[in-house]
Amino acid sequence: MAANRSLGRDIVIYLATDPTVSIGGGFTNPTFTKTTFLDSLDVLITHDLPLRVYKINDGRVRIQRTQDLLLPGEYEVESDGHMEVTDAPYYKRTSSAMSSLSASGRVRSFPASVRNRDRKCVITGVSMTQRELLQQRWTGYDAAHIFPVALESMFHNYNFGELVVLDDRDGSVNSPQNGLLLRKDVHGRFDQYEISINPNDDYRIVCFLDDSLGLAGRQLDTICRDIEHPHHVNDNIIFWHFQQAVLANMRGAGEPVFDEDIPPGSDTMNAILSGPAPAERMEFELSSRLGDVIRAQGSLLIK
């Protein structure tokens, strides 16, 4: 079964042009500020003039960009121009942890570069111990792709390949500027867009469901975004992830959360085909796994 992101929402959003039909919603939590809400609405709603947002039945007080927490309730959005819910695509994804098939050549350079740059989980701020660093023991951490490997062709369509620094071994999507070192438990939430980063709000960490990890007030660690570092993470790619998180969690009923805890020996194909969006998920899984094989084979040709 897939988790339903909309169950229990305490934020409901309406457009003033049709105040009887909700266009989506979300959840209040200690990371979800009024600024985060307004930035999310700029992603959720296409508009040619500024939006104005009011809490319904609250004296028509306009919501301003502040770090005050958003309160539960119903919110109405209006504008003097045209506005409608965006039809921007949402791309389903599964875990992007580097598999054993990707353990050599140019693909191996991705986790190595991300580890050397970050040396901590850049979302929680939990640092590697000196012993872990000495032994190069990364068992609790993943080098996570921000933009998924399985969508590599789209990486170029967004022109992200032109925004990252490459060496003679790296494919664009495996640039460390498309990576973050994350604790394994954080990585899963990041890949499912439950957690994201808003680079337009001082790189604040945003939880779109619950702040079960106590991330309120945290910002993306400066170690990975130091512009003096040649492999600093790219803001445009981070914002793409934030946009996807808004679409996944706040548009309509939200997107299903895939259950990846398939026990060993189980029928993986049947689990995928009996779950939500089976065709799209199967296409993504095949693209991701075959991509690993192709990249690993290609790495053998690189000296």
UniProtKB/TrEMBL annotation:
One Pfam family linked to the record: DUF7881
Per its UniProt entry, which superkingdom is the organism in? Eukaryota
Q: Where in the sequence is the signal peptide annotated?
A: none
Which ranges carry the HNH nuclease domain?
A: 121-198
The keyword Hydrolase is annotated on this UniProt entry = yes
Write the record's keywords in alphabetical order, separated by commas: Endonuclease, Hydrolase, Nuclease
User: Which residues are in the DUF7881 domain?
Assistant: 8-83
List, alphabetically, the InterPro entries matched.
DUF7881, HNH_nuc
What GO annotations for molecular function exist for this entry? endonuclease activity
Question: What is this protein's name?
Answer: HNH endonuclease-domain-containing protein
Its taxonomic placement starts with: Eukaryota, Fungi, Dikarya, Ascomycota, Saccharomycotina
